[in-house]
């Protein structure tokens, strides 16, 4: 098993509409549970995420720097609003040890209206 590369703090992130109140789920990976918990706690403390789910012991297989990598990671699934994504990405990158961390969001297009409302109230900063 190899260790994933460390991050480059200068990599920018872009979002087309950072003022949108669209609820989103964010998927990110970390090298271990300790890192996942630290990042999740920081995001929730800053009200950049309403909640986080951690899934341990996931296997990632990917191509990096000329070779196929096979690493164990911890998944973090967050619920938040699209409008805070730029700040969320910056906060994750400030704590994340990877050079190029996986941080992606997908829109929540349906679900329990009261839960989606709760996401929005918890991430209204």
Automatic annotation (TrEMBL):
Any Pfam family hit: CutA1
UniProt cross-references to Gene3D superfamilies, sorted A to Z: 3.30.70.120
GO annotation, biological process: response to metal ion
InterPro entries for this protein: Ion_tolerance_CutA, N-reg_PII-like_a/b, N-reg_PII/ATP_PRibTrfase_C
GO molecular function, one term: copper ion binding
Source taxon at top rank: Bacteria
Family per record: Belongs to the CutA family.
Protein name: Periplasmic divalent cation tolerance protein
The organism of origin for this protein: Varunaivibrio sulfuroxidans
Source taxonomy: Bacteria, Pseudomonadati, Pseudomonadota, Alphaproteobacteria, Rhodospirillales
């Amino acid at each position: 098993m190899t260790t994933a590369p460390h991050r480059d703090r200068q990599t920018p992130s872009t979002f087309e509409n950072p003022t949108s109140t669209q609820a989103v789920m964010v998927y990110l990976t970390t090298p271990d549970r300790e890192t996942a918990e630290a990042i999740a706690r920081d995001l929730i403390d800053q009200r950049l995420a309403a909640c986080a789910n951690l899934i341990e012991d996931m296997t990632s297989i990917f191509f990096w720097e000329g070779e196929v990598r096979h690493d164990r990671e911890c998944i973090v699934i967050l619920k938040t609003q699209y409008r805070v994504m730029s700040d969320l990405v910056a906060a994750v990158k400030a704590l994340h040890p990877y050079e190029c961390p996986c941080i992606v969001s997908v829109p929540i297009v349906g679900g329990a209206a009261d839960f989606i409302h709760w996401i929005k109230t918890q991430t209204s900063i």
